[in-house]
Design brief:
Elements (H helix, E strand, L loop, with lengths): L5 H7 L10 H11 L7 E8 L11 E5 L10 E4 L3 H9 L3 E3 L1 H8 L7 E5 L3 H4 L3 H4 L13 E2 L5 H10 L1 E5 L5 E8 L4 H17 L10 E8 L5 E2 L2 H11 L2
Parallel strand pairs: 3-4, 3-5, 5-6
Antiparallel strand pairs: 1-8, 1-9, 2-7, 9-10
Length: about 240
């Protein structure tokens, strides 16, 4: 821990690395030990027992957090004609296709999420190398490729209101922002449980053995707090019944 500053070291002293905490305890501790001079993000991290090299063990899904992420989400919708108007009326920040495909190819990335009408994916597909590695590519599995124009406003509102996508990285881990330090403890708790429930539901059929090996919560600048997996999973399941 020598590479960390004094404030981090003092905060870390208040977290027992050998203990498994409840999600309620983790929310309270993180708010108490936070020392950054800005409204830090609250993050949930999961180490999964998957082989990320196997296609049938990939984890990718989305969840609507009850209290949102605490940040403004800029949405780009790839749409044309009437769908473009519907997207803007629903609250999208940008809508269109040809213009934005070109701008993205030229290096423009001033948005946080994308949606595409299915009839525009032929034009959007070429952006995979740019958007895919940033987690911004529209995908049917995450509900961001829309076939019916009537469904478009709902998808826009969900993304604006707190819907987040998650997927495993190359090491088989999940990292998701679930709120801000300024959130109430119960809001952090509710968002964490919603994500854990969605993560559990997204378990691939190809996974054998233990699916979730470690859960932890942290703020942008804070040490992590390890969660009791069994307790958290049980509470997440109960919260959605």
């Amino acid at each position: 821990m020598g590479r960390h500053g004094k404030k981090f070291i003092e905060a870390a002293k208040q977290v027992d690395p050998e203990r498994l905490y409840t999600v309620e305890e983790a929310a309270e501790i993180l708010k108490r030990i936070s020392f950054a001079g800005f409204d830090e993000s609250v993050e949930l991290h999961a180490r999964l027992g998957i082989d990320p090299r196997q296609a049938d063990q990939a984890v990718r899904s989305s969840v609507v957090l009850p209290f949102g992420t605490g940040r403004q989400v800029r949405i780009l919708v790839f749409a044309a004609g009437e769908a473009e108007r519907v997207a803007l009326d629903a609250g999208a920040d940008y809508a269109g296709t040809d213009e934005y495909v070109q701008r993205i190819q030229d290096g423009w990335l001033e948005f946080d999420a994308t949606i595409a009408m299915a009839d525009q994916m032929g034009k959007v597909g070429g952006l995979g190398r740019i958007l895919g590695r940033r987690g911004l590519m529209p995908n049917p599995r995450s509900g961001t490729v829309v076939r019916d124009i009537e469904d478009l406003p709902g998808v826009v509102r969900e993304l604006k209101g707190g819907r987040v996508e998650f997927r495993n990285d190359r090491s088989g881990n999940i990292h998701v922002t679930i709120g801000k330090r300024s959130f109430e403890e119960d809001q952090i708790r509710s968002n964490a449980l919603a994500l854990v429930d969605a993560l559990n539901r997204a378990k691939p059929s190809g996974v054998k053995g233990i699916y979730c090996r470690k859960l932890s919560m942290a703020m942008t600048m804070s040490p992590g707090v390890t969660l009791d997996i069994a307790d958290t999973m049980a509470k997440a399941s109960a919260a959605t019944q």
